[in-house]
């Protein structure tokens, strides 16, 4: 059995086990009664939210590629988006998703030196949108985290927002170059010139933002719209069991959940996502149904795009590409 098939079987087994445990730990007799009133229209709402979220994701990708001086046909846009889902699920920390995006862009005529910054900006803008939303969430919502007061959460969120914005500026300064050089010299891991070259490559990517600020602002807005519609899959599925949906509060919690998932060590956030979902949304659903919604959310938001991505990547490159991408992602993790 080759590396791709082996990793696919392991991932499939883990996903089935996590989903079964999630449902078993939350389902009771009350939830079985609730299934009798299941509203199938919620699946349609979830599919629409997924489609609109993907539309804005594709729109921002096309805009970034255009800023870089290239263009992408619709099949290429879809392959990049779904290829990201596919490889992110196969690799810890979703590291393979970025590698896959760069290589797919390369196959459509976008050089690696241009594709890497585009992928980097996509990720940075997504995280930046979530970080910017944090102060608003903690000011207007009563989200509680054990051992941390609401006031502390607000302060921490403001600090994170300021650090994220200031960090984009500081990366461009000579102070950062000096700091990187000293760190490379002190740690002895790699040559200082190599570290400075990576910093230069990073700054070259961010130069796309500064070259056309208004277009970059549109990319940021499209990033936010894409994420919000993708997060709306959760309240859409909740409609299957209850019509008393506080969509603003649910989206607030989805933003917090997905920001945490960016740093989850498991492939695709498996296990972490389900546990956080249950913790954050139990109060919003009838007793015993939160596990069903958690699994449904993962299926619509992650597993369906994963299988579409698997088909699109295999038809473009085949299994050898996937095996090579996994190896590249693993090497990047250990470098």
From TrEMBL:
The keyword Cell membrane applies. Its EC number is 2.3.2.3. It is an enzyme of class 2 (transferase). Signal peptide: none annotated. The keyword Membrane applies. It holds the Pfam family LPG_synthase_TM. This is Phosphatidylglycerol lysyltransferase.
